[in-house]
């Protein structure tokens, strides 16, 4: 069964510059995304409760987006953090794109909600 692409959007009260630091650096990601984060040569090593995952940065644009590919995942699957601006309110929007089995999208979305809540706490939102 192939995974489906889904996106989540979160309004953020923070400058794109500061937000990008939390999305694209090992120190920033270590504040909210994983317990341990190391980065070497465009590869990020994430640790949670004794388990470890590796992801490669496959594309990025400073203060706009960063796209990661999990080691071992199908080549066309990724997860991405994108920083958009609402044209109406001019508010910063964090857009997360990920892949999951259709039956798992709700659970994965709740996990992202929890992670983003931790990010907002670190940002003072």
UniProtKB/TrEMBL annotation:
- Superkingdom field: Bacteria
Q: Which InterPro entries match?
A: START-like_dom_sf, START_2
- Name its species: Niabella drilacis (strain DSM 25811 / CCM 8410 / CCUG 62505 / LMG 26954 / E90)
User: What is the protein's given name?
Assistant: START-like domain-containing protein
The START-like domain covers 3-124
């Amino acid at each position: 069964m192939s995974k489906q692409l889904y996106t989540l959007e979160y309004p953020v009260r923070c400058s794109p510059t500061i937000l990008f630091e939390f999305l694209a650096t090992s120190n920033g990601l270590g504040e909210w995304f994983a317990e341990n984060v190391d980065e070497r040569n465009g590869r990020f090593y994430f640790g949670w409760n004794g388990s470890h995952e590796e992801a490669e940065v496959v594309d990025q644009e400073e203060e706009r987006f960063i796209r990661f590919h999990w080691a071992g995942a199908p080549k066309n699957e990724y997860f991405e953090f994108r920083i958009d601006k609402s044209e109406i309110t001019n508010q910063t929007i964090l857009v997360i794109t990920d892949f999951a089995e259709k039956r798992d999208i709700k659970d994965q979305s709740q996990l992202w909600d929890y992670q983003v809540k931790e990010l907002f706490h670190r940002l003072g939102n």
